[in-house]
Write a structure and sequence with these properties.
35% of the residues lie in helices and 6% in strands. With 147 residues, the protein is mainly alpha-helical.
Amino acid sequence: MKIRIEKNSVPTNKFRRAFTLVEIMLVVIIIGILAALVIPKIAGKSEQARETAAHADIYGGIKTTLDSYEEDNGFYPKSLQDLITKPANAPNWHGPYLDPPVLPVDPWGHPYIYVCPGKHNPTTYDLYSLGPSGKDGNDDNIGNWAN
């Protein structure tokens, strides 16, 4: 018994399933349009997130730590370093007040600036971030006083 194979036979539909070039190009174009609409909206969010993180540090974590130091000793520290190592003038020091005991940096990698007594808050302290520019006195500084 011989099996005969015809040379001109057309494969059935189940063997011819594939995407055409037009279909692939259409999908790529749709993805490109969606990316063009979404990427600009996401791009500005990273800087806004950094500003929010700096506010959270200034009005939250670092402020709480400074308030704990003041509650224990009756005065605010002269520098942020006093939160890590005991100063000579703090007999009720219960630190280190920062965990881990390292000086905090803002979301742009700059150390937070702490001044006691403060220029803007003369009865307490000024705590601020230099912001994205990293320069003191710019409009992008984020501090614990009303602008």
